[in-house]
């Protein structure tokens, strides 16, 4: 019987007790390790695992903010965002047949080589193929149903004014951030803040769950400019016609409202199309009226005369001997291009005598001249908000030598931007005070800063009227129905530390109606090369065209007879050339 039990349970008799305990211990230890690992993963490292899982299926998609609109003073759109689609891929997830790949490249208007280059980095989770795809094209891309190709809502900036307003409005980059002009100057106001939305995609890229808005987008604010789109178009056409007619290198024009200091128009050439910037070169982007400075020539003579009148040094009828048409100061000699002899102070402006202006300037304290230039805004930026705004150059008066003070009287040895020149002429349009300029529409006229007495300014305004009458340097600035005042400038361009012999800047700055000025217009033509280069022949006609059209658009009452004006031929106009 004992033998039978032993034969029936052979393992019981042959296995030592310690081995079973060892197996049990190993099993318990393995279970403990697994439990610890599970605890570590579930409790201690949950965030990492959740992030890895979410990276495969869950995404946070940016909800773009609608960029604010830019409008002119009358509500006409100058910049607006239109809905488009942003197409992007996850390189590691994209699976496309050769035919689908080719179709996608065609729809995105790129070569298959360009598309492959964008997909080369498979480590990246997201690569934009095009952030500005038209909705109808985006629908055709979606119809391909290529795994790994996704789309999001986006906006594309559109500029209805095109090249006419390019330098003023500017443009945005592919990320909808302002890069030039108003778009850059008012970036914070226009941009808004993007929001976020959570989604879950399946393995094929299709959205299977929308978690909703995680953070709402804050839309950008609109910007209402002081610009009048009608006057802007008129100014651009007038400038373009003159640049083309005179084969000029470029030009600029500024139109100001004398009552408020608002900029009603600002245009430059060469220009560009902000809606299609392919092939654009840096020279086209320069906002010459704001960023470029030049020697203004004789457009500065009225300031010298105004100061002499204000200080009681002269009267409009004080005689100034300009014969023989030259004035020696040390080793330098100042010339008049057309000697006149004995002139009154008024005629110094009318005939634009360099010698007469220099003699008057030498009787003035240099500090007083310097202070007047500072008061009207020369020598420092006007703080319009434009990037790269030039402040021009006015050297400290303590360093002036007599020859430098003399030449500054007719705009030589001093540099200003075109918008500074236009702003300074508000002095003669506003009876002796100046106001800050504004690129946005103003609800009320700002307070002015008194610089000269009204009596002095009225005398100078009468001289500016003489300059555009027969016998003056700018009869081609006359406008039917309106009294006009203004001053021409013709200056040699600076080159290699000196002055170019046959390269000029022709300019004109003026106001109208002279009886009660409403607008100031300043024009600059850079390097006219068709034979004529005097400001009276090249820039004054632009002033007449733009000023006349703008006054009529604004329904400004006439203050002169409505009869035809006989304008002299351009070839007969003679003027100073510094």
Q: Could you say what the CATH architecture of the largest domain is?
A: 3-Layer(aba) Sandwich
Instruction: State the helical fraction.
Output: 25-40%
Based on CA atoms alone, the radius of gyration comes out at: 37 Å
Show unreliable segments.
none
Strand content: 15-25%
Q: What is the terminal-to-terminal distance? A: 140 Å
Shape: elongated
Arithmetic mean pLDDT: 88
CATH class of the largest domain: Alpha Beta
The class by helix and strand makeup works out as alpha+beta
**Number of helical elements:** 23
CATH superfamily placement of the largest domain: DD-peptidase/beta-lactamase superfamily
Question: Can I get a quick summary?
Answer:
It contains 23 helices and 21 strands. By secondary structure, it is an alpha+beta fold.
Task: Tell me about this structure.
With 578 residues, the chain is of the alpha+beta class. The protein has two domains: 60-222, Penicillin-binding protein 2a (Domain 2); 229-272 and 284-572, 3-Layer(aba) Sandwich (Beta-lactamase), CATH 3.40.710. Helix content is 35%, strand content 22%. The chain is built from 23 helices and 21 strands. Strands 2, 3, 4, 5 and 8 form a five-stranded mixed sheet that branches. Strands 10-9-21-20-19 form a five-stranded antiparallel sheet, with helices on both faces. A hairpin with a 6-residue loop joins strand 20 (498-512) and strand 21.
């Amino acid at each position: 019987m004992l033998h039978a039990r032993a034969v029936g349970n052979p393992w019981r008799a042959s296995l030592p007790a310690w081995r079973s305990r060892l197996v049990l211990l190993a099993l318990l230890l393995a279970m403990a390790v697994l439990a610890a690992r599970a605890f570590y993963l579930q409790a201690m490292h949950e965030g990492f695992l959740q992030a890895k899982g979410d990276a495969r299926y869950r995404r946070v998609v940016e909800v773009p903010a609608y960029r604010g609109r830019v409008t002119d003073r009358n509500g006409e759109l100058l910049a607006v965002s239109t809905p488009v689609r942003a197409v992007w891929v996850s390189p590691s997830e994209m699976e496309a047949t050769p035919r689908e790949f080719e179709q996608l490249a065609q729809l995105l208007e790129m070569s298959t080589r360009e598309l492959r280059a964008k997909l080369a980095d498979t480590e990246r989770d997201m690569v934009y193929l095009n952030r500005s795809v038209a909705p109808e094209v985006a629908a055709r891309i979606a119809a391909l149903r290529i795994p790994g190709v996704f789309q999001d809502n986006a906006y594309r900036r559109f500029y209805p004014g095109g090249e006419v307003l390019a330098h003023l409005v500017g443009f945005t980059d592919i990320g909808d951030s302002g890069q030039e002009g108003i778009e850059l100057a008012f970036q914070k106001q226009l941009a808004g803040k993007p929001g976020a939305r959570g989604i879950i995609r399946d393995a094929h890229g299709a959205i299977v769950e929308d978690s909703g808005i995680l953070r709402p987008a804050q839309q950008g604010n609109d910007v209402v400019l002081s610009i009048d789109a009608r006057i802007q178009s008129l100014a651009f056409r007038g400038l373009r016609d003159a640049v083309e007619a005179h084969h000029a290198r470029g030009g600029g024009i500024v139109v100001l409202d004398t009552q408020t200091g608002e900029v009603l128009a600002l245009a430059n050439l060469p220009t560009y199309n902000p809606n299609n910037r392919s092939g654009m070169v840096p020279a086209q982007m320069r906002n010459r009226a704001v960023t470029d400075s030049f020697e203004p020539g004789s457009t500065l003579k009225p300031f010298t005369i105004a100061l002499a009148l204000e200080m009681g040094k002269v009267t409009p009828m004080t005689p100034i001997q300009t014969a023989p048409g030259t004035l020696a100061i040390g080793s330098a000699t100042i010339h008049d291009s057309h000697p006149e002899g004995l002139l009154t102070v008024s005629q110094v402006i009318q005939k634009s005598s360099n010698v007469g202006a220099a003699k008057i300037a030498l009787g003035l304290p240099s500090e007083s001249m310097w202070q007047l230039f500072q008061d009207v805004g020369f020598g420092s930026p006007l703080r319009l908000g434009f990037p790269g705004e030039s402040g021009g150059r006015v050297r400290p008066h303590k360093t002036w030598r007599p020859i430098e003070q003399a030449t500054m009287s007719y705009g030589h040895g001093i540099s200003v931007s075109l918008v500074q020149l236009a702003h300074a002429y508000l002095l003669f349009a506003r009876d002796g005070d100046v106001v800050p300029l504004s690129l946005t529409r103003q609800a009320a006229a700002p307070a002015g800063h008194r610089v000269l007495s009204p009596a002095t300014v009225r005398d100078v305004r009468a001289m500016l009227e003489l300059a555009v009458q027969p016998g003056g340097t700018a009869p081609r600035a006359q406008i039917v129905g309106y009294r006009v005042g203004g001053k021409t400038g013709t200056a040699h361009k600076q080159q290699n530390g000196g002055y170019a012999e046959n390269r000029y800047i022709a300019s004109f700055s003026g106001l109208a109606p002279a009886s009660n000025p409403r607008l100031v217009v300043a024009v600059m033509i850079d390097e006219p090369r068709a034979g004529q280069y005097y400001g009276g022949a090249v820039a004054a006609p632009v002033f007449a065209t733009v000023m006349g059209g703008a006054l009529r658009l604004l329904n400004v009452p006439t203050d002169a007879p409505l009869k035809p004006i006989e304008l002299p031929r351009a070839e007969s106009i003679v003027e100073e050339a510094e």
